[in-house]
Amino acid sequence: MSEPVQPIIEFRGVSQSFGRKVILDDVDLKIYPGEAVGVIGPSGTGKSTILRIVAGLLTPDSGEVIVHGHRRQRSIEEGEKALGVGLVFQQSALFDSLTVAENVGFTLYRDSDLRPREIRAIVEENLELVGLPGIGDRFPAELSGGMRKRVSLARAIVINPEQHQQYKNILLYDEPTAGLDPVASTRIESLIRHLLSQDHVCCCYLIVTHQFSTIDNTTDRIIFLYDGKIQWDGSTADAYKSEHPLLKQFFSGSIDGPIS
Ligand SMILES: Nc1ncnc2c1ncn2[C@@H]1O[C@H](COP(=O)(O)OP(=O)(O)OP(=O)(O)O)[C@@H](O)[C@H]1O
User: Fold this and answer.
1) What's the CA-to-centroid distance between 129 and ligand 1, angstroms?
2) Which pLDDT belongs to residue 219?
3) Residue list, ligand 1 pocket, CB within 6 Å
4) 100 close to 137: Cβ distance less than 8 angstroms
5) Are strands 221-226 and 36-40 parallel, antiparallel or unpaired?
6) Which CATH architecture has domain 1-80+224-232?
7) Cystine design at 180: which of 51, 110, 185, 219 (Cβ 3.0–4.6 Å)?
8) Which CATH architecture fits 84-219?
9) ipTM tops 0.90
10) Cα R_g (the chain), whole angstroms
């Protein structure tokens, strides 16, 4: 009998409050290898909070978080391992005073014993992957918003070869196409898909987005979050057809319905 496939990310009864506001209420979740999952729902429902918990930037109030089979005990700040998770923020969050190459290779310059030449080679390879070869000496201010996002993607997929990458990258995208024109959005969306097809770069991803084109082009599965709970979980195709009142209202943008 073949071994059952293990989830790459698992939440067991995860709860998180901020002040008196319950954001996640006993959430269970499993994400499997190869999955492209959209985390959607109205503003302020805890979508980014889920990403921050997976990334190890936040330890939930209660519940278990298992990433690559390893139970997270504390946050990265408290010494927890990153466990092969790359986070692409809504704002590209590049350091303006550093070149593109210094931005992309930032963790390698800081944490590895690699020579500058070796780091530069990895940086160039990643810039090539995101379709921006040869821009390593430029500064972020000289780039368009779409290019900055691609540079931050190149940074998110950096792997330190000294650490004998134990885990394949889980990529977490927080509104990666927000504020981009439709063509720049499509470019990022294809890239997100492309990186998942590159086995050594990305094993699965979670993407938070409000943009329908991004939902269409980058997700196969949707998790709909509202009122602290996953209210709906299924294929993207089924989500669009669903008669669930929350999904119907969300996709139609109607002001009438359960979403206040
Ligand atoms: N560190 C924090 N301290 C206090 N409140 C927080 C903190 N982080 C998030 N929150 C609150 O938790 C709620 C959920 O935030 P989160 O960013 O996860 O929502 P979201 O679904 O990603 O929203 P959006 O779609 O607007 O980006 C919000 O009300 C937010 O103000």
Assistant:
1) 32
2) 97
3) 18, 23, 43-49, 208
4) yes
5) parallel
6) 3-Layer(aba) Sandwich (3.40)
7) 185
8) 3-Layer(aba) Sandwich (3.40)
9) yes
10) 19
Atom of ligand 1 nearest to the CA of 45: 21
Token pair belonging to 96: 């303006």
Which is it for the CA torsion 24, 230, 32, 11, positive or negative? Answer: positive
Residue spans per domain, the chain? 1-80+224-232, 84-219
pLDDT for the residue 82? 67
Residues belonging to the chain: 260
Strand order through the sheet with 204-208: 85-88, 170-174, 204-208, 36-40, 221-226, 229-235
The pLDDT value recorded for residue 123 is 95
Q: How far apart are CA 39 and CA 123, in angstroms?
A: 30
The answer to whether residue 172 scores a pLDDT higher than 90 is: yes
pLDDT digits (tens, 9 = 90+) for 197-242: 887 778 899 999 999 999 999 999 999 999 999 999 999 999 999 9
Ranges of beta strands (E only) in the chain are 9-18, 21-31, 36-40, 62-67, 70-71, 85-88, 170-174, 204-208, 221-226, 229-235
Interval between CA 40 and ligand 1 midpoint (Å): 13
Same fold for the domain at 1-80+224-232 and the one at 84-219? yes
Cα–ligand 1 centroid distance for 184 (angstroms): 27
Q: Is 18 in a helix, a strand, or coil? A: strand
